[in-house]
Amino acid sequence: MSTRGEPWRRTARAFHFRADPDWAVPALERAGVDCCALANNHVLDFETEALADTLAALDSAGIANSGAGPDRSAALDPAVVPVGPLTVAVVSLTDNTVEYAATADRPGTAYVDIDVEDPATRATVRECLHRARAHDPDLLVASLHWGPNMTVAPPGRFRRFARWLVDAGVDVVHGHSAHVFHGVEVYRGRPVLYDTGDFVDDYAVDGRLRNDRSFLFDLTVTEEGRPTRLRLEPTEISDCAVHRAPPDVAAWSRERLRERSAPFGTTFERDGDALVLDVDEG
Questions:
Q1: Dist CA 22 CA 3 (whole Å)
Q2: Which of 102, 135, 145, 224 fits 40 for a cystine, CB–CB 3.0-4.6 Å?
Q3: Total structural domains in the chain?
Q4: Is residue 240 scored above 80 in pLDDT?
């Protein structure tokens, strides 16, 4: 969110995205956004000046953020958000665009390879989670911008990584990047959303994959912060805005989600146009 900076030219980039903070910040506020995950493949599209403006705009609006910063240490810090009586900590990581990775003396993203066998990855993620747990959160969310565009299922290494995160204390794995929703898994009573697809976007629509269709993912937790139920309301993008999906689109999305979740042993109940999943362990 910036009007400054020049398009990134240090490496080849097909797209360069930015938004004027004078309208982008009020849009986030009106939508009730409390937290932004910034570890992604576009946050440096207009170089470090625009990243600095993005961070300043969010901080000025009181919108917590994680995943990017003026250096690696700042990028690994969690966002901490009060939700009613609960404290929620969000860590944000990406395996996209290694040239955007923050270092000890360079702004950028919290970058990791998605590989649980990589000692560097384990060390980085453990450091990130340690910082989050220092805030004694009731709910710990890992938001991951991982993998390529236009896929319908995660690779095996993503599944291993997600389970490792839950074993390390993460309560919700929130995946995104593919522009297409993937299946949902429940592991040890914790929801793993491998990819939530697009919610608001202006990309061209793939007529087969339908990246204009997804869900509002509504998670219910106990007073202690334990996830209990996931409700998925079908959505559709039109005119660069999100809408409730009409009945035929909702049916298409429900069918696709059931198909993509079946390999994880996940089944849903129907509630109107929505799908409901009880995530309590056991």
A1: 10
A2: 145
A3: 1
A4: yes
